[in-house]
Design a protein that fits this description.
InterPro entries: LysR-type_TF_proteobact-type, LysR_HTH_N, LysR_subst-bd, WH-like_DNA-bd_sf, WH_DNA-bd_sf. Residues 1-58 form the HTH lysR-type domain. Belongs to the LysR transcriptional regulatory family. Helix content is 40%, strand content 22%. It has helices at 3-15, 18-25, 29-43, 59-83, 99-104, 106-116, 168-173, 219-227, 272-295, and strands at 48-51, 54-57, 91-97, 120-126, 140-143, 152-167, 188-190, 214-215, 232-236, 246-248, 255-265. Strand 1 (48-51) and strand 2 (54-57) form a beta hairpin. The protein starts with a helix and ends with a helix.
């Protein structure tokens, strides 16, 4: 067994798919499948359960992944030392985040970090769900509530604000909204109720909305509905500068506040490269969020 075997194993474990891993590795899926089977033969154990839905790790695969990730991190640290680039970050970092922060905050923040660290590669996985860091779906994740289980390190980043909002053209076409009681007569945009993955995202219950006429699990889709003048919805203040014409409604009566956390696998605190990146990321998110909220 060599490092190349571990590299292929990690790609399949992280994507749970030969096709996706093959694309990332620029390797034919059939060849990759044979390499994984050969690795299992060498180790004398089954690493993946094959199914039409993809490749799920067995208990043996989970154990190997823990060691493979540690080896990968040690290799990255060693390469940085040999390059003598102590002042710069290199290698790859994957961030998991809800699509609101992934769409409207992380692109600017990570681009600035990469400008200062040309050898760094950043991947943003934008999905409206909770990430499993123990399975290395990402190196770190931004969350809206701190996890209560697992060997995880949790750092508060900053608070953020949300308001009820609509496009000015929608407001011009519909009856005026002078109080919360008037909201019930308007079309509501929000999350699909049974796909709200965190109770902190159940915004509409706080304004008494009983029916969501236009629903999506994506913040970006919801914002685009509002931009199109489709109805009323709760919007992150930091997203409003990206939606010309969308304005706050009842800003004094509807003021929501939530918090972002940076979540990492506990052992990663010992890895200087990831800790440095985490510090830059948190600092950048705080600064960019403050800038955008001031424009909202």
């Amino acid at each position: 067994m060599n490092w190349d075997d571990m590299r292929l194993f990690l790609a399949v474990a992280r994507t749970e798919s030969l096709t996706a891993a093959g694309k990332a590795l620029r390797l034919d899926p059939a060849t990759l499948g044979r390499r994984i089977s050969r690795l299992e033969d060498v180790l004398g154990c089954v690493l993946f359960v094959r199914s039409p839905r993809g490749y799920g790790m067995t208990e043996a695969g989970e154990r190997l992944m823990l060691r493979a990730v540690q080896a990968e991190q040690a290799l990255n640290e060693g390469m940085e030392d040999l390059r003598g680039q102590e002042g710069q970050l290199t290698g790859s970092v994957r961030i998991g985040a809800p699509d609101g922060v992934a769409n409207f905050l992380l692109p600017q923040v990570t681009a600035a970090i990469c400008d200062a660290n040309p050898g760094l590669e950043v991947q943003i996985v934008a999905q409206p769900r909770i990430f499993n860091l123990s399975r290395r779906e990402a190196d770190m994740a931004i969350a809206v509530s701190p996890p209560k289980t697992g060997r995880l390190s949790v750092q508060r980043i900053t608070d953020y604000r949300l308001h009820l909002a609509a496009h000015r053209e929608y407001l011009a076409r519909h009856p005026p909204i002078r109080s919360l009681a008037d909201v019930s007569g308007h079309r509501i945009v929000g999350y699909i109720p049974d796909m709200i993955f965190d109770s902190e995202l159940d915004y509409l219950s706080e304004i008494g909305a009983e029916r969501v006429a236009l629903a999506s699990n994506s913040v970006a889709v919801q914002l685009n509905w509002l931009r199109a003048g489709a109805g009323l919805g709760i919007v992150h203040d930091f997203a409003m500068p990206f939606a010309e014409g969308v304005q706050k409604v009842l800003p004094e009566a509807v003021q929501l506040r939530r918090r972002f956390y940076l979540v990492r696998y506990g052992d990663d605190r010992k890895i200087a490269r990831l800790s440095r990146f985490a510090g830059l990321l948190a600092e950048g998110v705080r600064a960019e969020l403050a800038r955008l909220e001031a424009l909202a």
